[in-house]
Structure formats: structure tokens, C-alpha cells
Amino acid sequence: MFAIPNFLSLLMSSVPFRFFCIVTVLCNSFQNSEGGLYVCMNTFLGFGREHVERHYRKTGQCVYVHLKRHVIEKVPGASGGALPKRRNVKLFLDLETNGDLNNDDFEYEDEAKLVIFPDHYEIPLPNIEELPALVTIACDAVLSSKSPYRKQDPDSWEEELQVSKHAKTLVQIDNGVRIPPSGWKCSKCDLRENLWLNLTDGSVLCGKWFFDGSGGNGHALEYYKEMGYPLAVKLGTITPDGADVYSFDEEEAVLDPHIAKHLAHFGIDMLQMHATENGLRDNDIKPRVSEWEVIQESGAKLKPMYGPGYTGMKNLGNSCYLSAVMQAIFSIPEFQRAYVGNLPRIYDYSPLDPTQDFNTQMTKLGHGLLSGQYSKPPMKSELIEQVMKEEHKPQHNGISPRMFKALVSKGHLEFASNRQQDAQEFFLHLINLVERNHIGSENPSDVFRFLVEERTQCCQSRKVRYTERVDYLMQLPVAMEAATNKDELIAYELKRREAEAARRPPPELIRAKIPFSACLQAFSEPENVDDFWSSALQAKSAGVKTSRFASFPEYLVVQIKKFTFGLDWIPQKLDVSVDMPDLLDINHLRAKGLQLGEEELPDIAPPIIIPDDPRAPDIDESSAMQLAEMGFPLEACRKAVYYTGNMGAEVAFNWIIAHMEEPDFAEPLAIPGCGGVTSAGAAGLGAIGLDNQPPEEMVALLTSMGFQRNVAIQALRATNNNLEHALDWIFSHPEPEEESESASDVMDMENNANANILAEAGSEGPRVKDGSGRYELFGFISHMGTSTMSGHYVCHLKKEGRWVIYNDLKVCASERPPKDLGYIYFYHRIPS
């Protein structure tokens, strides 16, 4: 029997088999690594060959299972299939295969060994005869383990679809039905969304009603119960690669291997079909000018790019928002230096569980994108072979951000889900994490931070108040009234309605053309302040507010506010073209402070109205009823209004969409420990007990606006968790009060990284990198789809003097970068 060092710890760690999992911690893929993967038998974390020595030196753990996959060319004449045949089916069952090698020419051979450090003593596995039973069981558990992400978040993993039992024997009625390419409508009602084509007789019927008010009247299911025709395909999901098929008999989504033939029966050519952005409607087949084709540069033969900085990222299922933001982030030198430049130090000082360390995972992701190890061009021999077979397909190996996404979305209900998200919200979320976790004085997010001067004027007394706040991006409204092609838009809308009524293909899309100067002008114009309380009048009055830059950032992020709400409260996007400039000068927006002749408003805080019952929540019942009329539970609506600070039904609707899957969604609102404030003088943090912790969502909302976390908590406590009053409180208390011992106790409860950030701010205020307001465009993120809850994101970056498109795993030289259709733009300062 072998004498294994650290044998006792190995035996002890072999007990809880149900927790075994393999996590590749410091490298992005073991498949592309010649050294394979080393799994620590104490922590069950996986390391590449270049990092296992570091882990051994740091922890002293010396027993590892070495996993290695060999890609072998099949012998001519060997049997094959659509997927490679594995010779050792027990090994690595839950690890992803290399999609570039999923063809009939290759197969996998998996190899496993038990390795003892520091001498690299190897024991082949399996080895039942010579290894102790517990060691053998432990090794088998590792080799057959499931992905930890599948365990932690099973709902976000799609079940593997099964072939329908009706697919092969489906009888299709030859009734002459032909399905047009557009203008679909339910044959039993007037609905034009969530439509399903019955594959037996060609009936087009609506699906079930959805929680958000969309969907249908369930006529497709009723028709199955009446006729017994089992299979239906969802219109709008048909592409050359397949379609969404549902079996009413089997009551689940299924695969139909004969879908092309079944669709051809009704005159549908799969090769000519395109999926819609949200999968719910495809009444309008996208013409050549659709944003999907323009933004992704479809139809052009784009040249693949390889090497450092040209690495793609795998889409994990609606994770393109994350990929697009991270590609832009790691194109910035300050982020490259902070993480990848400090890789040895960050890895050496990472905690024992690096999967939960933000800096480690940022470094791992950045190294994967910038090293070039996961973006290698195919060998010349492979290209020649592909050309000879007339099946040349560019290889896009790339990396998978699964571990990174699991960490940065931890505790965040929206980002932790498998739904599409807003790239702008994720950008701010990421900056918040960088702020909380930066090491020492080096904070790469400093390059985005700037100060905004807000000038508020009382219209009656004409007195003014100047305040400053921190921000990280410039939000520009879309000035629709300034469209330069209004006549064309009116004519297009008339033609579109006529085509829809006649069930004809829609006319070629005409997109509103908005001058960038109009958006910039709309940003700088005064806006009315709702419920403005004038300290000069000691009463509510009309007020206007203008915003200017108190400092200009090193990197300016500009968001075009394309998303709005329709009459049905469903988020919608303005499909517009904005002529974004390559060179941008906003020096004229520099703040000037209090001007000669202006008189400041008195520094008097507005009175705080305390309800008779201090524990009674302040809820705008009219907004709650407005949401309830849309079909949501009343108690859920009241919670939504409360947790969004009574900021209206529109904001509360977003909260509902994000939280409706929670088990207590419809439960009555419960506010534990909501102790009231008896006077304005008790607003200091030290006067409030620890049981009055404000809701974390409201704190996060205020911190996302640029306020410090301790100030946000202090303001919410002082105003009984009323978000609107909290904002007034912050602006009326520009100088933070000295924290008492109780406040220090509260800070001790916060994350250490948060405490570092607050301590750094001190009396000097936020750190900014002020300079000239002249910028040059170097990147933009574009969104395709009708709302932030659906669609797809891609990123364009200017590197080495040319534009490059990053579309998930695909990284190619851009031929026609659609700069006018972007959503978030990245500018860097031009040195003066």
C-alpha cells in the first residue's frame, strides 16, 4: 500500500462526499492548458499547472488529483457522431468540452492521477487494489462531481431537452396552409405576440398569459385539448440553428430533429429565418437595417482577431451584458495595471478560498482576456484541411466568466438570475465592488469618478443652493423632438400601419436621427424640481435645477437614455440613431460655482413629519393601486412602492419584476425594528439604535448615486427610511456629522473594505482626476432588443488604430462600427 503524505487529512476530507466539486480557481480553462488541472484533495479547488505550486507553498496541502484531457484525431473509418466520442465516460462528466473540436474528426481521452507534492509522485487512477478504500472513494467522488454552479443555482441551468416521442411519427395534414413571413395573428383572437404554430395543421394560436401582462389567452393549449395535435413551434424563435418546440402531450419543451422538414411543410425555410430579440413576438421580420444586423455587422466577412486583448467570453445565457462591460473595462490601462499587472502579488496574498475574493477573480478574468493564452489562431495545417473540406469556421476558444459572474452577482437578485440585465446598472455595480475591494491607495475606478455641481434655485425668492455629488457616468436624454427626419418618420409609420392591417411585410425601417448636440443641450437645460422645499420661504415652492461638471474624469462614460416605459408600463427602447462624435469637447459644461449677485438659500433643514405610528410605513397608496390594477398582488405592490422610496409606479414596477420570483413576494409588508425619530435633532447616527438598520436596497440605491454608505444610512435613519426625504436630508447636510461611538460600532459591522473606502474619503472629499474636458471615443456598448429585460449586447473597441467587435466568443476586425446605435460610450481624455 502506498504511503501518502498528509494521509490523515485526506481521509478526513473524504467524508462529506456530497460537497465535492471542482472549481478552476486561478486559470480560466484546463482544456487549453497542456498541464491539465490539479484538484486539491482538501479544498477541492482546481489549479492549473502554473498555479498549483503556489497553492502548495501557501497551504502545505500536498495531495492533488491531476486531471488531463487528450484530444486525439480519430482513425480513418472509425465510427463517429455529431459529438466526440469519449473513451473514458466516467471522467470529467460535468466539465465543458471544447466546442471547436466537436466534430467527427476528434475524440477525447481523459486521464487522472493522484499526485503527491513536492516530489510530484504520481499514482494512476483508478487504483482500487493498492489505494486505501477511503482514498479511492474520495478520488471517485471528485471525478464524478457536478459543477458547483449547477449545485448553487440549479434554476439558472436549463435542463437538457429530450427528443419528443412525436417528432419522428408526426402526421402533418396536407391542407395547403402556408405561413407568411410576417403579420402573424392568433386565429382565435387579435393577439400578435407569443404565437405558436401547430406543426400538424398549421394553426397559429396564442400561448399562455405571462406575469408581466404580456403573453396570450391560452388558445394554443385549448386547441390541443380539442384536437390532440401535440407539437407546436414558437414563432419568432426559428433560426437556421433550430427553434423552440413544445409538446403539449409531454408538457415540456422538446427537441424535434425533423423541425426543418416539418416547417417546410408550411412553406417556412429555416435558413431564411431570424430570431427576434425577446422571443415573444416576430410580427415584423427584421429588414436589412434592423439593429440586430447592423450592430453585429451581419453579412460582412469579418476577419477574426487573435492574441492578447482579443479574447472572447462565452455567453452563459443572457450574460452578454457582463461580457460587454468587462471587455471595455479591461481595455483601460489603469484596470490592466491594478489587476493583471499585480497578478503575482494578488495571487500570493489571496485568501484560502480564492473563489470568494473579488480581486483574485478580477485578476483571473483580466489575465484571461489580456494574456492571449485563450485566443490562438488555428494552425496552417488546420486551415488548409478546413478549406479542402469547404467547412472553414473561425475558432473562437475564449474564456468562460462563470466563476466571476457567480461572485459579483452574489447577493444581488437581478444579476444572480439568468435573465438579461441592464449593462449600465452592471457597470455601476462593478464600480461599487471595485470601490469596496481596492487594495491600498491604488483604486482604478478613480478614472471614472467626477463631481457634479447641482444648482437649485427657488423660483419665488430667486435664491440658490449649490451642492456637489459624485458620479461615474454622464446620462444624456434622447431629444426626440429634435429629430432631423420627422417627415420620413411620419410616412414610415403610416406605411407600417397599412402593412400591418393588410398582413403584408413591413416597409424598410426608418430610424429617428437625433443630433448629438440636441442631447447635450437637453442635458444642460434646467429641470423642474418636484416638491421643492424652499428654506427661504420655509415652505414648498417651485424650483429648478441645473447640473454642471465640477470636475472632468480621466475616462468619460456616456449613457444614451434610450429606455423608457410604454403605456402598458412595459420597458421599451427608443430605436434611434445619434451621431456620436469621435472627438468631444464639453469644457463649456464646467461648473462656475456661486456667481456675483446670487444669494444663497438659508441652510435650514426641512421639517420632518413624523407619523402618529412611527412603525407605520410611508406608502404612496395611489402608486400601489396603479400597479395592482395591472394584475399584481396588492401587498407586493405596497412593498414595491415602499422599498423604492415612493418614487412612483414606474420605479416600483422595476422592483416587482426583479423580486416576483421570491417566495414571500405576495406576503404583507413587514418592517422589523423600524424605530421612529422623534426630532430633527436626533438625526445623528449616534442617536439611532442598531435595530433601525435601513433596507439594504435603499442604501444601495443611494450609494449608486454617489453618496457615501455611512451618509446614506444616516439619512435613511433620520427620515424613517423615506428615500425622497433622505435625499433632501443629504443635500441639506453637506458636512457629515462627527460619528459617535455608536456609529463606530455600526461601522465595525460593515465589510472591512467598506471601512477603508470611507476612511479614505475623510474630510478631503472624493478623489478625482480633474483635467481638460476634451475627449476621444475609444469604445461603445450596443444593445439589440426592445427592452433591458431582453435582447443582446456587443462591444466595439478601438485598438491599435482599428475598431474591433467583441460579440461573446467572436472577436473580429470591425468593418462598419455602428457608432450611431450605441447605448454606452467610452471616451478618454485628450492630453492638453
TrEMBL record:
InterPro entries the UniProt entry points to: Papain-like_cys_pep_sf, Peptidase_C19_UCH, Ub_carboxyl-term_hydrolase, UBA, UBA-like_sf, Ubiquitinyl_hydrolase, UBP13_Znf-UBP_var, USP
Keyword hit for Protease: yes
The entry's active site is: C320 (nucleophile), H792 (proton acceptor)
Question: Which is a Pfam family this sequence falls into?
Answer: UBA
**What are the UBA domain coordinates in residue numbering?**
618-659, 693-733
Signal peptide region: 1-35
How this chain assembles, per its entry, is: Interacts with UFD1. Interacts (via UBA domains) with SIAH2 (when ubiquitinated). Interacts with BAG6; the interaction is direct and may mediate UBL4A deubiquitination. Interacts (via UBA 2 domain) with AMFR; the interaction is direct. Interacts with UBL4A; may be indirect via BAG6. Interacts with NEDD4.
- In its UniProt entry, what is this protein called? Ubiquitin carboxyl-terminal hydrolase
Lineage of source species: Eukaryota, Metazoa, Chordata, Craniata, Vertebrata
